[in-house]
Amino acid sequence: MRKKIAAGNWKMNCTLEKASELSNKIIEAGSPDGVLTILCVPSVYISTLLDKASHGNIQIAAQNVHHKPSGAYTGEISVEMLSSLGVKYVVIGHSERREYFHETNDILLEKTKLALSAGILPLFCCGESLEIRKSGAHLDFVLDQLRETILTLSVEDFKNIVIAYEPIWAIGTGETASPEQAQEMHASIRNEVAKVFGQEIANDTSILYGGSVKGANAKEIFAKPDVDGGLVGGASLNGEEFITIMNSF
Length: 249
Ligand code: PEP
Hints:
This protein has 249 residues and is α/β, with parallel strands linked by helices. It has one domain: Alpha-Beta Barrel (TIM Barrel), CATH 3.20.20. It is built from 12 helices and 8 strands. Strands 7-6-5-4-3-2-1-8 form an 8-stranded parallel sheet. Bound molecules: phosphoenolpyruvate (PEP). Phosphoenolpyruvate binds next to strand 8. Phosphoenolpyruvate binds at residues 9, 166, 171-172, 210-213, 231-235.
């Protein structure tokens, strides 16, 4: 059965003190029954937060991983390192990685395969720019991102993927896709998954929406039948706001 997920992407924010405070608040509140909460934290805090937070339905995720298994890549983090810490989830293909670090679909597929081989589940992001949305080619564009990456996996591997649809024009802009726009894209993604892997697998795939989700709009978005939760940036840095989102299913 597909999971309901509230994922917070802290990005490059928080001192250790703030990270502790924020995670304490979330742990204290607890993830509601049937909801998996995933905190995607800066890698320097993974160890500390794993020790206190990673149990049951609250998990700590990495925000990125390198696409080579090991070697002379100064400053990078490998899947082996993450799995040796006990990390179970990693964000792959966030639009900021695609844009600022020039991560192509090929690189993202390499990362995905490596993560899966180490038993780490990818939160795989996709999404279109405003220009593409305005041109009306958004559905094809996003499906192509998936066709070139996770839809080429084996069915056994694909079962371990969580998809996050994040329209770039809605990330950090305060502008949210309407629940109908999110539903249209999520249904189209699920339909494509069904074509490749069958309806049962498609029904079991969690597809999250990301893009200016906050306490005030989460309920409406999560109520759509093909939206299984959110990947939340800005609002995940505010404990109360994120706890409201966790409770919006
Ligand atoms: C994100 O970066 O994944 C995101 C959705 O950011 P925000 O919620 O701030 O738009």
